[in-house]
Amino acid sequence: MHPYLSAALGGILIGLASWLLLAGLGRIAGISGITCSALRESGGPAYWRWAFLLGLILGGALFAQWLPAPELSARAPLLIVAAGLLVGFGSVRGSGCTSGHGVCGLGRRSLRSLVAVLTFMASAFVTVFLTGGLQ
Q1: How far apart are CA 16 and CA 103, in angstroms?
Q2: What CA–CA distance (Å, rounded) separates 60 from 53?
Q3: Under a CB-based contact definition with an 8 Å cutoff, are residues 34 and 53 in contact?
Q4: For 134, which DSSP code?
Q5: Rounded to an integer, what distance in angstroms lies between the CA atom of residue 134 and that of residue 99?
Q6: What pLDDT digit, counting tens, does each position of 17-26 carry?
Q7: Which segments cross the bilayer (predicted)?
Q8: Per-residue burial over 54-89, b = 16 or more CB atoms within 10 Å of its CB, e = otherwise
Q9: In percent, how much of the chain has pLDDT > 70?
């Protein structure tokens, strides 16, 4: 499968899933918010949250069996931990993650989400520029 086609199909599936969650349950498909609420069990029973997270994991595992996975160079474990902590910090400070702001917030024409996405993208551009890109 051509990489552009798999990317387009993935985007369609993400958009469809976020729309179904919003239309069906009135909830935003922000992964960090769903995960945090599931772990804290805040906002009522967390059954749908756990089902959503399990679907992400199982869906990724299923598609990994069908589609060839891209080859990535290994990274130092300490670098991965630092990156994860920075993403978590940014999600808390930004009141959401890229999925919540980028997929759902922009679709709802949220100004706060537009500012958040522009900040995410600017940070990504600077990071790639400073580190020399993906090697």
Answers
A1: 10
A2: 11
A3: yes
A4: -
A5: 22
A6: 888 988 988 8
A7: 6-26, 47-66, 72-92, 113-134
A8: eebeeeeeeeeeeeeeeeeeeeeeeeeeeeeeeeee
A9: 96
